[in-house]
């Protein structure tokens, strides 16, 4: 049984830079599960969170008066009021001998727990999509393309406006540290214009986003879909509400026009925002611990067979929270790569991927709708509200492989068999390419940390249809002439 813990973005402390305490933010919009199931694969040993800290946070959330907190707290209490049922038949995807000393990663959860977590996020997203949340914003995170001089100039304009005296609140603005000495941004000139700007223009780096996401009450991105995905990448756990201005080539995820940024932000801060919670996914690299000897090893047997006592076949080597896609490809290898695909406790198929003219031969898994890359690869066009994972093989060395649509509650594994001639490479939202050696695999499962995307008022279906029609000219053709009698 799970309990959903609340976001702390809407309650402000008048004497601090952020609108919530660090301990509250560390558990904002996070789904936590009772560690009561003993059957897990021993191959995923990860240190656990402090149980005393979790109890302290649970007590703090009960005192909040934030509407978002109340929604989440009511949902949590309603779940706790239901009788707890132990399902011993739910075999977990990864076993570990001591759950009291282990963190609850989504790959360790049962099928039932994963399903309930995904359903919880979707139910909460529906509730948030029908209301306006009035946030008390004080600290704002700004993200732009650091190498685009035009966007840097626009970033300076919006920063100057947010710092100006015409605002009812003295906002603290964080921009990327590379802009501190940028001539186009001219931070020194911006501060010297008004003494009140001193101390309110600050700079973020990747380490700050990773360790102190609670500093930011609100995030604004200037760019395209890639910039929004970069924001998701920076905030691997807690994500502040993100409002995206469309300044890129395409705009499937960026919803607002920069020309109206003053009216858009004024309305957001004064009248409230509509938030869509996007379920993200957790990807973990699992390294083989099997000795390189003459004995024949089988990845299928290791992943779905019965583990011997104290025999740890794999160990985790880094986890990544992703919003859009995972790609497993052959990398720089000129020859055909071999991969094996698993779903939950079952082996699905082996695929050999040939080289192609463009040099991109890969598996793709798209999690946030299905547009652009997946569509170009021959995948299905799928509405983003469908709770599915799309699996598409590019240049598979067979005539019969077709794209597969799976529920978002499954645990997928893509591995490199021990007898593969070459290694493969994995990338996450287009970043952090990691080599997968023979015997290694990557696990993909629903994450406990959803992405809070600020949406315009109106129907999401109309918005999605408009975006594919506008950006891809979907089903656009010359109208057929009528008969003249």
Describe this protein's structure:
By secondary structure, the protein is of the alpha+beta class. Helices cover 25% and strands 24% of the residues. The protein contains twelve helices and 21 strands. The strands form five sheets. Strands 10-9-20-17-12-13 form a six-stranded antiparallel β-sheet. Strands 16-15-14-11-18-19 form a six-stranded antiparallel β-sheet, with no helix packed on it. The longest helix has 19 residues, at 111-129. The protein is globular and about 70 Å long. The protein starts with a strand and ends in a 13-residue tail after the last helix. Residues 1-29, 31-40, 44-70, 82-103 and 355-362 have low confidence and may be disordered.
In short:
The protein is an alpha+beta fold and 485 residues long. It has helices at residues 22-25, 51-61, 67-80, 111-129, 149-163, 187-192, 206-211, 225-234, 261-271, 299-304, 373-376, 460-472; strands spanning 2-4, 31-33, 139-144, 172-176, 201-204, 218-223, 242-246, 274-278, 281-288, 314-322, 325-329, 337-343, 346-353, 362-366, 388-393, 404-407, 412-415, 424-428, 431-436, 441-446, 451-455.
